[in-house]
Amino acid sequence: MKPSVAQLENLLALKRHEGPGEEYWQGFLSEFHQRQQEPAEVGSGLMNVFGQIGTWFADLGPSKWVYAAGLAYTTVTVAWILIPKDLMLEAAPLTPVNYKVVPAPAPKNEHPAPVDLSSST
Amino acid sequence: MRAREGDTSAFDALILKYGDKLYGLVYNMTSHKEDAHDLLQEIFVRAYQSLGSFRGNSTFYTWIYRIAVNQTLNFLKKRNRRTDLSLNDLDSSVQQDPALIDTTQEDDRERQTQLNELQTKLNEALMKLSHPHRMVVTMFDIQGMSHAEIAKVLKASEGTIRSRLHYAHLHLQSALQESWKERF
Q1: Complete domains list, chain B, with CATH
Q2: Is B45 an 8 Å CB contact of chain A?
Q3: For burial by CB atoms within 10 Å, which of A12, B18, B31, B96 has the most?
Q4: Is the minimum CB–CB distance between B147 and chain A shorter than 8 Å?
Q5: Domain count, chain A
Q6: Looking at the whole model, is its pTM more than 0.80?
Q7: Is B17 in contact with A11 (CB distance < 8 Å)?
Q8: What are the helix (H) ranges across A4-99?
Q9: Which residue, B28, B33, B37, B25, is CA-closest to B61?
């Protein structure tokens, strides 16, 4: 037989009492203070800004994809506006539909030798 | 406020105040003591460095809990990519408060043993849930948060939370079917 939902919830609630003792937290705080005193990661101010942006983005919920799509759209639009038009390659001229094909003159052929059809054996 | 102004002892007090709850979240999600310890250190370091961005739009507990949830999920994604970690490395044993265990009577000792086995099965079943489902079970059933609180932290609707819980409960009930005895 299966436990009911209420029985399952009671069983899970027992796990609420699982946890480390008070002495754990003293050691935890000591280690935390050591980590605080460690030198900050080497990096320029710009890297820190990127890091904070990354953190902000990761902390967004599902809406982060809306922000990402908007940013991509904005980037493409700005690039389209800023790229000088004369840098764009001109398309090769297309062959007009009514282009007349003039075949090259056929090479002159020498008159072939006459075929001897008589039986000669 | 004092913590935000650089008062480290004030932040220590916050660690002691919320540490147990966050430990419960992280340990029940990772089921690995060393990972839980390292991850909890990273969570508090991140929270300390980000204190300036806490604007008071939510309670401090909600804010730091959200950091803990995101860090834990990121950690689990990376851990899942590791090929050297197996289910055997995870801790499925029971860590109960000794004060709750009454072993004076033989029947109670036998019952306690069966309960411990059941808890072990439950831990194994929890680790087989997906991260989002394990997260809502941890927050609702183990930590006693309400649907509304969970929805706020996870930035999801209450309907989504209820749906995940329902699926997770069905899964756990099936996992415990063989071990469950009527006397429980």
Answers
A1: 1-84 (1.10.1740.10), 102-184 (1.10.10.10)
A2: yes
A3: A12
A4: no
A5: 1
A6: no
A7: no
A8: 5-13, 22-37, 45-59, 64-82
A9: B25
